[in-house]
Amino acid sequence: MKLCWANTDNFDDADIVILGIPDESKSHALRKGTSEAPDKIREISSLRDTYTRDGKTTLGLPLSGIKKKIFDYGNVKKVEVGKVIDKIISKSKMPISIGGDHSISVEIVKSLSKNKGALSLVYFDAHPDFNSSTRNYYGSVFYDVLPFIDLKSSLQIGIRTPEQEEIDNIRKYDLTVISPLDVLKNGLVEIEKTILNKIGKNVYISFDMDAIDPAFAPGVSVPVPGGLRNIEAIYLLKSIVSHGIVGMDIMEVCPGYDIKDRTSHLASRMIAEVISSC
Prior knowledge:
The protein has nine helices and ten strands. By secondary structure, it is α/β, with parallel strands linked by helices. The chain has an eight-stranded parallel β-sheet with strand order 4-1-5-10-9-6-7-8, sandwiched between helices. The protein has a two-stranded antiparallel sheet with strand order 2-3. A hairpin with a 2-residue loop joins strand 2 (50-53) and strand 3. Helix 2 runs parallel beside helix 3 and helix 8 (230-243) runs parallel beside helix 9.
C-alpha cells in the first residue's frame, strides 16, 4: 500500500520521495511497535484522507492543494538508508522519511550532510535526545548528529522532559530550545519569527510525534503531557517548509498504543501540509 498522497508511479518524475523505515532496533521504550508505523500511516491515509463517490476516489487535500509529484519508494532496511537517501538526493529530489525509532534520523542526517554540507536541524521532540554518556540509540540522536549539523542555526522545539545530562549538554553547546510553555507565553507568531531568524540553509526537519501533546497524538512510544497542540505543530511546520527544506522525517508513531488511529492520521495530514507548502 502507498501513502495516499503519492501521485506518480515513476521515481524519475517525482519531486518528493516518501521512504518508510520500519526499524526500532535502537529504541529503549517500554512501548514497542514503532516499526509498524510506516505501513499503518499509509493504510490510514488511504482510509481517512480519501473520499469515494460514484466509484471515483478523490483526496482530501490541504486548502493550497498539492502541486508536487510524490513517489512512494516503499520500505527499506535501516542499513540501506544511506544508499537510498544518496540516490534520492543525487536525482535532486527531497526525501520525507517515516520511521521507526528516532535513531534512524542519524543515518538520514549523515547522508544528507555528505551531499549538502552541514544541516540546519529543526528537531521537534518532547525529549532533547542529547545524552552523550550512552551513544547510538534513540536517546542520543542529537549528540550523534553534532558532526553533521550547523549548531548555530539548529534548534529544538517541544522539549519538556530533559534528563540532567541533557540539560548540561544544552548549556554546554548553547543549544536553542523552545518549549511548549514558550509557545504559550510568547505566542505562535513570535515563536515563528524566532525560528525563521535562527535557521540557516540546508534546513532539515526531524519530527518525533511525541512533541505533540498526547491529547492529540496518543500513539507514540514515549508520551509526555504538556506538549504542542496539533495545529501549532502544523503551523510551524508549514512556515519552516515555506522557508525551504532539504528533507524531513516523522518518527516514533506507535500504532499499537494509538486511539482509533488518531496519531497515524495526524502524521498523514502533517505530511500533506508539508508537501503543500513545498
